[in-house]
């Protein structure tokens, strides 16, 4: 009887420890913009909920079709920088799927041992490539240099009638910096931030907008 009880107890302990160790990724986000004549985008995701096994990388899908495996990063991107256009995937090729009418994308985590793939719970809508739209977006804030290695310059394209709050979030949605801007041209020191993508959110009484930037390379 004691042997049976011990066996059941060990089984339950192993089950509880193993549950959720191949959890899906969290906080999947998509941002796309068009700066004539180029398409730019960032697909980002957060780490799966703990506990989980060792992650060896991520699989990116367009609909149910596998696109690319990424290791060591929590995003795929095609962005403009001081070095020109940089991409860690197939670049604009990612947008050219099906008939170009858009698609749903999702990301799965790949774990050790054995390359076991997680399920997914979040999808994002990718609108396909934007072509020949010279005025698709008007940037309300320009951040440069991007990527930045220390000082990040901020140029607002509309006159400030009031101070505006700038808050910086990391890829997991954690607030890492905030300040109040009272001029259309400002500069902040971001050298304390770890290398990676960040989201700057500008909030005034009557308007709000956001802009992404990269620290390091």
Radius of gyration (CA) equals 21 Å
Number of strands: 16
Which architecture of the largest domain does the CATH hierarchy give at level 2?
Sandwich
What CATH calls the topology of the largest domain is: Immunoglobulin-like
Are there runs of 5+ residues with pLDDT below 50, and where? 5-19, 132-138
In CATH, what is the class of the largest domain? Mainly Beta
Span of the ends, CA to CA: 62 Å
Order of helices and strands: HEEEEEEEEEEEEEEEE
Number of helices: 1
Give the strand content: over 45%
- Structural class, by secondary structure, is mainly beta
The dominant shape is globular
**Overall pLDDT metric:** 82
Helicity level, as a percent range? under 10%
In total, how many domains does the architecture comprise? 2
Overview of this structure, please?
This protein is mainly β and 217 residues long. It has two domains: 26-126, Immunoglobulin-like (Sandwich); 141-215, Immunoglobulin-like, CATH 2.60.40.3080. It is built from one helix and 16 strands. It has one helix at residues 2-18; strands spanning 26-35, 38-46, 55-62, 65-70, 75-81, 84-87, 103-111, 116-117, 124-126, 141-144, 151-156, 164-169, 175-181, 185-189, 196-203, 208-215. Strands 3, 4, 7, 8 and 9 form a five-stranded antiparallel β-sheet that branches. The chain has a four-stranded antiparallel β-sheet with strand order 1-2-5-6, with no helix packed on it. A hairpin with a 4-residue loop joins strand 7 and strand 8. The longest helix has 17 residues, at 2-18. It is globular, with a radius of gyration of 21 Å. The protein starts with a helix and ends with a strand. Mean pLDDT is 82; it is low at 5-19 and 132-138.
